[in-house]
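Problem 12. The chain below contains 703 residues. Write out its predicted structure in token notation.
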Amino acid sequence: MKSFDPSSLPVVTKECLLDVASILGPQGRIAKRLSHYEHRPQQLQMAQAVQDALRDGQHLIAEAGTGTGKSFAYLVPAILHATGDQQETDDASANDNDQGRKRNRRIIISTHTISLQEQLIQKDLPILNSVIPREFSAVLVKGRGNYLSLRRLTKAQARATQMMAFDSQLKQLGEIRRWAGETNDGSLSTLPFRPDRDVWDEVQSDSGNCLGRKCDTYKDCFYFKARRRATNAQVLIVNHALFFSDLALRSQGASVLPDYDAVIMDECHTIEAVAGDHLGVRITSGQIDYLLNKLYNDRTQKGLLVTHELRQLQQLVERCRFAATNYFADLLDWSEQHGSPNGRVLAGGVVDNSVSKPLEELAGQLLRYSQNLEQESDQLDFTNAHNRLLLLAGNLRSWNDQGFAQTVYWLEQHPSARGLPRVTLALAPIDVGATLRESLFQSATDDGPPRPRSVILTSATLAVGKEKHFEFFRSRIGLASGGSLQVGSPFDYRRQAKLVLVKDLPDPSAARRDFERQLPTQIRHYVAQTNGHAFVLFTSYDLLKRCAAALVPWCSQQGMNLYSQGGDQSRSQLLDAFRRHPRSVLFGTDSFWQGVDVPGDALQNVVITKLPFSVPDHPLLQARLEAIQEAGGNPFRQYQLPEAVIKLRQGFGRLIRTATDSGMVVILDPRVITKPYGRTFIDSLPEMETQHARACEATPTAP
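Solution.
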């Protein structure tokens, strides 16, 4: 029998007693470091729940109201968990496949917006690194195509005159070469200009065109440096798009991200839409044109096949181009004669697929030619093109034959300056939840890819009405198990905010034209009450443009700036201008309902023109509503209403961003009062002063 050795007992030190309260509590490490730190009980409550879920290997959905400080509430327990004893074995993990082994404690933090990623990396994590007495590293992970390949850059310069069609592209290549000698990370976001697609495609890091350790530039490779940092880090910051791309690859035995023990998804109210995009397929006529032009462009006489003087293969490229042009023209003809107004395609084989076979023949010829090349780097150019052609051919066949069950298929048309419209062929799973349940939330199997022990999902807006366990959100993402937590905002909405409901405008659904005709007058009235300092949120670009045009003269008379989405300025440029000139009004649509942070006096008024119901004319939404109806459900109650409520909560959340902010939210849609479902919208908002107003009354009157 082994004798007892007292020295084997762990030494109890102050560091061993670290928990979320010792860092986030009123006497915690952050409070001692930051002079203006405000303790928030809601933050500590959420942090404790996240800590418990990570420790026990459980899933958790947590709604944390604006101002809770939810980033610290999940970052602190994530860091403590990731830096804990690597050989620790919890009772909760006794049945895990990794029992008895050292667990990988790496944690993924996934966000929807770039602004939140920047906040985490540039502000929150440096603070926590300074107050938590444990060594940890956190890195921002980007997709491979964001990094410059030094080898490919050298090769692109050597054959630039044969590959680049314009002098401007040659100039950009030279500027990239100069930048390559100065940049620290080789990331596209740090390049001081936006290069042409053709140029960046020739120099970006590409898994299909990589020599790995055989490459002369391997030690200096920006992508592999970033990958090594990610492999050695405890906390990885990614966006939802990269996360779900990685999840899709894992089902095929590949991955972009290193394995991880847990994932925390902030801004998780968006994941159904993002997952649907990345678990589906999109093929465009432009993709095929682009890939074929990279091989041989008949107009410019440039391309890989010109470089290698492969005239027979150039003719095969022309055959593929001719077949693709005819295929998309046939689809457009079919759509005009037999298609549905929203582009949905209900049956496979509506036209003959004349493209996949010649693409596959071209791919085979490229592969055969590559086997005769001596230089491995030259071989990669051809094998990479081979793989891309096969992928396109396979995706085209899947779309044309409608080879997947429980999937919706559609085509989109976009105007083109070169004659035929650009065509996009899309397919997406109708029920994203079923895929996420199988690939993300269920426990890993012996023969399957590794899965996280814990998935933490958080947002400021998840609940609909008075529900407590996020039934709607759970039904959409396929998560039936795990805990639920709802912590309110520390803000005093009764003191800081006022809700104004306009009650006597025409019904937007029954009398749309009358309602929209009166909107400019109502907007002008309420924007005048706060002398600008206002967001006006719309549900369509068309209505936004008409209202903006109607209000330009009035704004000019008032000396007020009107910033309108849909013009030449980007979203960030509009926000910067609005912050610099607060006596302004900003008209925005979908992207301005969420992820926009304008604290202080600049924003004092949010005008919501319509309740944000999705129009059920998009093929994917249409298919989802049909699936609910076929199952005996009520599509409006089970999907359209809850989705609109969450989006309204997002729009409302633009107003109060700090404890000193104040202002009003105006809802111009009278259905929030006149329809029975209107109560669901009101019940989902914080309790505050609510006033009913007649249209254009100078002073709102209490009910």
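Discussion. Residues 1-15, 86-102, 698-703 have pLDDT under 50 and may be disordered. Students who got a different answer should revisit the alignment rule from Section 12.3.
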